[in-house]
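Open question from group meeting: does this chain pack into something compact, or does most of it stay loose? Before anyone orders reagents, we agreed to write out a predicted structure and look at it together. Recording both the input and the output here so the notebook holds the full record.
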Amino acid sequence: MPEGKPPAGRLKRFAKLASLSAKLSTDVMARGVKRLAGAEDESLLGETAAEKLVATLGDLKGLAMKMGQAMAMDPDALTPEVRKIVAKLQNQAPPMPYSTVREVIERELGGVPEKVFASFEPVPVASASLGQVHQAVTHEGQKVAVKVQYPDIGKAVASDLDNLGAVVKVVTRGTGMTEGRAYFDELRSEVLNELDYRREAQWAAKFAHACAVQPTLHVPKVLEPLTGERVLTMEFVEGETLKELLGRLEGVDNDERFRVARLLMQAIWAPFLSHGLVHADPHPGNFLLLTDGRLGIVDFGAIKALSAPFVRVNQLMFRAAAGGPAVDMIEMSHQSGFTFDVEPEKARAFIEGVVDIGTRPTRTRDYDFATSTMTRDMRAHFLKNATRLHKMRPPKEAVMFFRALGGLTQNLENLKARGDFQSVYKELSRFSPAMP
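Structure tokens returned:
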């Protein structure tokens, strides 16, 4: 395998994951038994196992690494110590060598970095699932971030999706959950779209426009002449990442935690409620705390535009949760695209249970995310209703929306802020037009 390229073959990638599974299974099973016995603070992975996970997924990159990034956000699965290890996958993956970076840039931009830019740092400032980021300076003197895609990562992602698709096919046939294929196809399409950096540049501009309604948010500008299908150049944003803040959380007072939590809520809800756009990859490496108090947002490959009916329903539900006029949750669900093949009372109980868990911070002026069990309780609620979930089907566009909201909740629980989140929801409700 050429240096700097992740293994791309379907069988090779499957074999690596199978080998990793065998190495981790004993540790996970033993710790799982302890959790079942009541050891709630027991992590599903030990530190040694976590290092093995990071090493393997960091080598594989692609979708496999994205799954590791998601695991690092789960406040219920890992202890803070182990989560810190797995969080390396968010922006500290093994980088490709500079010789490969030069090849990609020359192919995409028509010249080697030393000619295209006035200066170019050979050591990346961040490296993640699809590419790595280098700091550079343009010939006009502007400091920029240059994201360079790993060679053959498209083939690697396609292999991961093929392997996952085979599993989905078996599950859907065995359970009768035929709609599972539609949700997988939605995820597949969105993940493959992330490989096109020109497309990402377009979404970055749209997302910047949507975030302009909230002055506390900052989206860096794209330099289109220095952008190609596999290279993306943007204004360089300097600041501490949320990941870094979480790594030193014990020394951060609650006022700062609450300030950051408020910014994170604004970053997900303001562009969605105002323009129907959501950032569906909200892992802690994608948020930076700027020195002027704003929140910098990066990585726009997973921006999702939701349909007008879906957005309108969620605007009304958000306004209701923030103290506005009550709405009928089942009627709202139908209007947003949900379908139900169960008795109305069972559908209502499930939907109202989801809303009840998800809106807990809106019902008090003193909510403590340090003791929050929203992620755990939502998971338990879905497991409790597992046998009839295939009869209560959300629209496929909701997959990315739920990914964004789930990530936001996990970030807030990991941040452990306490305060008046009810007021934050009321602030954001100004983006939800009143019912006509």
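Observations to bring back to the group:
Residues 28-39 have pLDDT under 50 and may be disordered.
The chain is about 55% helix and 10% strand.
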